[in-house]
Every structure is written in structure tokens, then in C-alpha cells.
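In the previous lecture we treated proteins in isolation. Real proteins rarely work alone, and many bind small molecules. This record shows how such a complex is specified: first the sequence, then the SMILES for NAP.
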Amino acid sequence: MAKQVVFDEIGGPEVLRIEQVELGEPGPGEVLLRVDALGLNRAEALFRSGGYFYQPSLPGSRLGYEAAGEVVALGAGVTEFAVGDQVLTAITGEMSADGVYGDALRLPAGDLVHRPGGTDPVTGAALWLSYSTAYGALVEKGGLRPGDTVLITAASSSVGVAAIQTARHLGAIPIAVTRGAAKRERLEQLGAAHVIALDEGDLLEQVAGITDGRGAQIVFDAVSGPGLADIAQAVAPGGLLIVYGWLDPRPAPLPLNWTLRVLGYNNLDVTGDPAVRRRIRHFLDAGLRAGTVAPVIDRTFDLEEIAEAHRHLESNSQIGKIVVTVDH
Ligand SMILES: NC(=O)c1ccc[n+]([C@@H]2O[C@H](COP(=O)([O-])OP(=O)(O)OC[C@H]3O[C@@H](n4cnc5c(N)ncnc54)[C@H](OP(=O)(O)O)[C@@H]3O)[C@@H](O)[C@H]2O)c1
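The predicted 3D structure, ligand included, written as C-alpha cells:
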């Protein structure tokens, strides 16, 4: 029997419960995975509370996108993995049916990628979604170049930290935005060239001061909401506003700015392309080797503490990734 985290109604972290399920043998094209660690994402808290871009199928919805583990059995026709391979999940389906929170999974081989050599399960669980989102948006879609300035909102989030490191890896200049000055020092340590704390002054004045009035070539925004009007004006002429998250669900006005290009980014669209997946793997390998890709683990929890882990996720006190470890 395997443990699986499910929920039967929309609500707070307390709706999460662990149930025992029979996974069965892997069918054709499937793999059985022992899960060693889970990476938590804001998407899962939004999904659990009904605020994600699609709704859960209830009761008994699964959740979770990111797991790191070991292949323990193969179904017929699986040739790209072997028993004992260390892997990560890179699922492109929807969470109610394919969610990965649990201690074992039966899933299509196409939903796995090999874990970069030398990464332990906790680091592995913090890699795929955050870094593929940062790399996919900034490089594949945004065309970020060395010397470009990139303004990163919610910079302490797991994607935000990955975006700081991705920009640094490329020789671009990351400006981190946080709501409170408490995270300033840590964001500087993590590679932000400048930190804008919104409780210390006006966003646009601070961006103008840092960029000599030009603005940022790319603004990478996870927040949206009413603040988008200001954020959009921080884009340099000819630059790009990438909106990839809606942490503030209120309506988001755009200013009249005729040179502004706006891109709504969905990582699942980008990572579904095998050629992009291959480039992400190479980007991660190169970054891990150079030390420029270095997942920041905020805190770990046990699987049995999954509700507590979600409470911490929603506290907004974290910097980087929250990981759940699984004992066997
Ligand atoms: N489009 C895609 O394909 C894609 C892929 C991955 C993630 N996402 C989205 O990216 C966002 C970040 O995800 P994550 O898992 O990295 O987040 P996370 O680790 O949970 O980080 C959240 C951080 O964002 C800031 N924040 C939270 N609520 C906010 C609000 N209402 N206004 C402004 N800032 C707020 C807080 O930092 P401060 O208090 O320091 O500001 C908080 O620590 C989410 O919206 C998620 O859905 C989208």
C-alpha cells in the first residue's frame, strides 16, 4: 500500500489528509516510483483553496507537481528508464488525477526526467518547476541577454530565487522586489544586484534610480493585481512584461504604454516540448556544475506534517523552497 495526500473539499491546510491506496503494477509505458522528497509550490496551496486557474475534482483530489525519487519497477515498453534510476517528476497533466504528494507513484514514463547527477532528493525536489519556469520564461520566451536588467517581483519565492540565479548565470542584472525589508539581506546574499523593499519607498522611483531612468528590459511578475499598473511602467521602452503568477487576485489594470509587450506565461505549455525539456536539462546540469543553480531550501517537513508545511507556505515568511521528505 502507498500513502497519498488527498482532499475532499476546498479549504485551508486542515482539509489535507493521508490515505492508503493500492497502486498496482505499472502498465504499458508506466513507471513505479518510490518518492523520497516533494517540492512544495504556491500552486498547490491555491489549488487546495480554490484559487488556481483550474478547479480540483472533488472528493478525493490529489495534488502536487514535484517529486524526487527512484524508479522501482517498469511497465512494458519503457526503455528510457531503468530500475534504480534517480528521477524527478515533470508532470504536464492536472493535479486532481496526477498529483504527486505521496510516498510512491505509478505514472507515465513521459512525466519523469532523470535527476541531474549528484543531486540529493531534497535538492532534486526543489529544481524542476522553479528553474524551468524561470529559465522557460526569461530565456526561451523572454530572450534575456547578458547585461539586461530584469525586475523580479515576489523575489523570495521559489521561482523568484530561481530567476535571480538564472539571470546571474546568464550575466544579466537581477533586481529583486519584496514587500518588506526583512528579506533584503538574504536576497542580496542570494545574488540580487539590487533589492527593492516596497515598505521602504515607491517602486517606480527606486527602479528609475537603479536603471538611470531607463527601466528594466524584462519585468518578471508573479503578483499581478492593482500593482500591475506600476510594474508595467517599470519596463524599459521595447522591453517585455512577463506575468506568470496572480498572487494578488484582484483586477489588474494596465497603463497606456504603447511600447509595452505583455506575455502571460504558462510553464506547462513550454515544458511539454521535448526540445525545450532537453535544453532545461542542459541548463540545470551546467548551472549545478558551475554552482550558479543552487536551490535554496527554506525548511523541510515530514510527509505526515503536510498540513503544517502548507501553513508555512502560506505564511509568506519563506525564502526559497519548502520540501517535504518521505521516510520509508
Ligand atoms: N505560470 C506558471 O507556469 C507558474 C509556474 C510556477 C509558479 N507560478 C506562480 O508563481 C508564483 C510564485 O510561486 P512560488 O511557488 O514560487 O511561491 P512561494 O514560494 O510560495 O512564494 C511566495 C512569495 O511571494 C510573495 N507574495 C505572496 N503573496 C503575495 C501578494 N499577495 N502580493 C505580493 N507578494 C506576495 C511573498 O514574498 P514577499 O512577502 O517577500 O513579497 C511570498 O514569500 C505563484 O503565483 C505561482 O502560482 C506560475
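Summary for your notes: Residues 41-43, 46, 129, 133, 154, 156-159, 178-180, 183, 222-223, 244-248, 265-267, 313, 316, 318 surround NAP (CB under 6 Å). The longest strand covers residues 30-39.
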